[in-house]
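Final paragraph of the annual report: two paired records, presented back to back.
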Amino acid sequence: MQNFQNVPPLKNFVRLAGTNAEIEDELGPLSALLGTWKGSSGWNLVAVPNGASGFLLLIQNYTEVINFTAVSSPVPNRGGTEEQMVGAVIYDLTVTDNLTGGVLHVENGMWLNLAHIEPQAVATNAVLPPPAQTIARQASIPHGDAVLVLGNSFISQGTPPIPDNDSTPLAGPDIPLGYLDQYLQAQTKFPDFDVKNPNATLRKALDNQQIGKVTTFVLDTSSILNIPFTTQHVDPNNFTTIFWVEEVTANNTSFLQLQYTQQTNFNFLPRFGEPGLIMWPHININTLVKQ
């Protein structure tokens, strides 16, 4: 076995933690995420294969806790003539069912600030342009799926323009009458949740709130890494997400609020009247407050 006791250390290899201000600078907009967030108005909407009946629509109201922790020094990606200094935030989250108290979902991963690119030669003062996509999110979940989504962020003032989304499956032009009745029945069962347009539920949460600064993250990918069982039965192949970190005043109280919407596209069962598989939107939304 090689003896490493007399091997000299690599020069400039030590990474020292910066001050809080330096860490926030490396994280850029991701610093808005730091801390612990909790919200009990989350909603999960997902259709899953269900034997002879074809599919089963599941809708669950949930409570979620998300913890975001900064990595205390930037991580260098060296490219020879330039390097990327990546600011990173580690996160973990737990989702529990409001009805049963059981755990519905756990997840961990990282958010990355990709905007800092500079010449690798220390003496050079040139400023290099950031990449086209400056934010990344890496996520791993115990269904056997891992995702890397890329996107960007921006800052605005006032109530954010939360877009519509549609939970209706793309089932083809000749869909049988009554095939999607489960979606209509669910709206009656869950009157506090807009089943057809889940993002409308997020907008409703902003009623009677004064919104100041908002940091928005928009990310997507058409590539998800799945275990064979998941690919065989539902084939998730697209993921999009938007996060809003909002400065809020309501009832003479100021606080920080985090809202998000995300959609994973499932694909199973043949379409009606055209080739391919039905695309079933799996949608999650929630509104959380910083603790």
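The closing record of the year follows.
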Amino acid sequence: MIQPALVDGGVIRLNPRSPLSDRLVELETELEAIFDEFKPDVCAVEKLYAHYKHPTTAILMGHARGIILLVAQRRGVRIEQFSANRIKQSVTGHGHAGKSQMQRAIASLWNLKEPPEPPDVADALAVALCCGRQIGEKRALPA
């Protein structure tokens, strides 16, 4: 299996005090710049999961996820979606790994000096790694 390479990782920070519509436009602008810079062939996203204790978070994440899918689709970038359990299983071998376990696994897999901060960066890198591994596995299959 081919091991995907880490190119970059980070967080898009939006002002939580700004109206949601303004934040979504800013998110689109930031993503357009990232897509322009890195020219991805694939956009990997986590499937939306709504925990009954945090419905507002799920709704806000749904809006942001929609912008991500919109930007990728407009550019003709292939979209791959993975469940949280599948991502965790791919990276740690355990489908219910916690945030700190994911951070340590990502740091170890890519020989990072420190676990990615905030934990959301490790989560995003884990989604990308899961996708990259899936693509690598498909390419390694005999024709």
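DSSP finds five helices and two strands in the chain. This concludes the annual technical report; the extension proposal builds directly on these records.
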